[in-house]
Fold each of these.
Amino acid sequence: MSILLPRVRGALSRTTPSRFSLSPAFPRASISTIPTNVSGLLDLKPSEAVENVKIDGYVRSVRAQKLHHFVAIGDGSSLKPLQAVVPADQAEGLTIGAAVRLDGSWVPSQGRHQSHELQVSRAAVLGPSDAKFIQTHTPILTASDCEGAGEVFHILTENERRASAADPARPFFRRQVYTTVSSQLHLEALAQALGNVWTLSPTFRAEQSDTPRHLSEFYMLEAELSFTDSQSAVMDLLENMLKRVVSDLADSKVAHELLNPFVDRSPDLAPAEQVAQRWSGLNQDKWPRITYTEAVRLLEAADMPFTHKPSWGKDLHTEHEKYIAIKVGKGYSPVFVTDYPRDIKPFYMKAGETDHGISSSRGTAECFDLLVPEFCEIAGGSMREHRLENLVESMRARGLNPTSSEDPTKNLQQPDNNLGWYLDLRRWGCPPHGGFGLGFDRLMCYLTGVQTIHDTAAFPRWYGRCDC
């Protein structure tokens, strides 16, 4: 943060600018020693107003009133922020975490909690920040397999690896530990304390897939929304976020290089026209949405030689997703596929309330995948099952705790059950909530035209390859 206090004029005027006059008129001061940070400005306590103050910093808090917003600005040089009084018509975009530049006068304050404050005449947002979500950090090592597909890397110490039945090693942890396949379960816990949260962290999958779309170690952008019972709201958030990314990048130098067909390109990149079409598709007014059941009917009616025959109750394969993206998204727009069969989705997803024309014995989950043309799935999300009894039933149905009991939650509370802590989240004040995970490396691959996801990582790891 930098603070600029140019030499000010003498006390020739006895009034503050007519545009903004919250405090009484102050004489103008001439300051020879110029503070360079918030701490220095807070130490500056002139009896007269200092004009033409210019300050860069981060918004710590905002109190909005009809005519003015009281904004706390900090830069790390002081635990105490300075108070800026911003006219309501200048306060757009002043959200917590935003990087801002404020112009105004440093004047004695009428408030009780600070001696001086910055009366702002102009506010500019240098870097916006969405105040509705809080960034969090989730663990890499976990005892919980979120997806339940068994595609996890087990953690063993060298002593444990060398141990035998005749000479067993003492376990480092008291239970089996894995590298995380998703931050979702821990993110749900944080959401109950903090509200809407997000994280961008490494994720590990032991998938035996050697394709241009798969990595064993990659980054996942995940978000959880508290107090929402609408799957549409989760999809809207994801759609609007990606549209904002493309919109904000559109005028950047990198975008011009990627989208300009006359710029020399590496042969490893897709043609500029193809990349430009991807960007344009992401900016479509409303991305189409289709249920899994509708998608299967579309695939069954298609006159296509699919390697895997489409059938209700089975996962959609890459060839199916590509066809849906072409047919529904016109090969241009991203497509949401919603309400997959419950039996092929993880235990934590909320059961669907409508059957979409299928028999009641074949239930669905309130979930979705986001498909993009050419690249297929880049994100997935769902409503989470927030009701304890329903979650226990879902876990038992998947064999997570096959032991029967008069108390359906008894065995799931035992210390040796790795998901007992997750169930506890449902026991006290768990609101309806949902979230999504976005493959960050896949998004980078799609936006840049890089042909293989391996080239988006400095040190890529995939099936059979971890060479350094």
Note: The domain at 134-401+416-455 is CATH 3.30.930.10 (BirA Bifunctional Protein; domain 2).
Amino acid sequence: MMSTRRAFLSAGGASAIALSLAACSRSQPKTAQTVASGTPIAEPVLNDKQLAEILQRVQTGLAAADKEKNADKLKEIMSGPAARIRAAEYATASAGGNDSYIHAMSTKIQGGGVGQTVGFPRNAAVASEGDKSVSIISLEQSSARDQFKVWAWVQGFAAQASIPVLTKQSAQHAKQVTAETTGLVATPKAVLDSYVDALNHPDGENGKAFPDDNLRQKVQSARSTDLKSLGEVTVTAVPGQDGFQGLQLEEGDGGALVFTTLTFTVVYKRTVDGSDLTLQGDVAAHMGGNQKIVGTVTATYDSMVAFSIPKEGSGEKATVLGAETALMKVERDDSKTPAPTASAKPS
């Protein structure tokens, strides 16, 4: 049956979203100005120098946390899904004795921007240049007493790595986005729903709309796991519960950079009595001394994703810029073991 969700075709390349800091004081973050009526005026509250200092603090703190694989040390530099997913990477690296599960996040700025708002939370976005990939980072300041922390980050997909997602050119009005932000080819929530549908139905309308990116390949690889006719694998994706962050230009191309999350589960089920199925990789690392599938084993992954959503009427299409995925937990249910095969009656 054709999905009732609207399909959003992904262009071959993302449109450049030119977000940068408007001219601000280079001292302390500014408080909102007011007009004669007393109405606060929303304006950027950081400048380039301050943003660079925030990222340097994040890099220093992250290096210390990564070295010890200590999730408690993330509290001062990360929040929300970023902290949760980084902690999960530490757990998998420790369980498997393999630090490659801890993915690099670069904070060398290519470009950045800060949303204009009079309240909290306040959001910023940064594109940073690494040795092998581009990191796209969402920062959040929860209250006036809190420091900016990394709320989400993604590794830019190889096909999108050269796209100037955030540049230094002027963007005087960068509005913070919500799930239902309008003025775009689709709301952030609608784009996420369509992408999740593409993960669940790769041959469906939305599945054909989005390019075959790294996250889609990871999901398809899990779905294609060969259990030698002794079992079956089911993969299901759902939208995350973390909400949406990002920036929307009110001038120029009017596009938005949006960060959000999704979750997908991989259920490995043994279907043939007496069969011997053993898991490997990150899932096996979380299974301790018993890596065999007796009944079912369920692996749950969280992914941070970033979308470029063009302005309504632009003729361009929403696209996925990158993702960061971690294994959150592994659960086993040995009670779901297959029924014994009936023995043949003697003749």
Note: The radius of gyration is 23 Å.
Amino acid sequence: MNDEKQGGAGPAADETTQHAIDRTVIADVLNCYAHGGTTEQSAISAGVDVATAHKIIADAIAAQKGPE
């Protein structure tokens, strides 16, 4: 598998993972999730671990909520 898809970093990962997550990976996770896939299925389809997929999805949801 592509090392870039293994851990990830950038806006969609925590400080413990320092590899950049490609925008394509983020799009793959969110696309699968938006079409009814589970977080686990989204992670598998994008080639990342479940924790990274959770972070990508959580960041996307938080970004949509905006300021309160």
Note: Residues 12 and 55 are 6 Å apart (CA to CA).
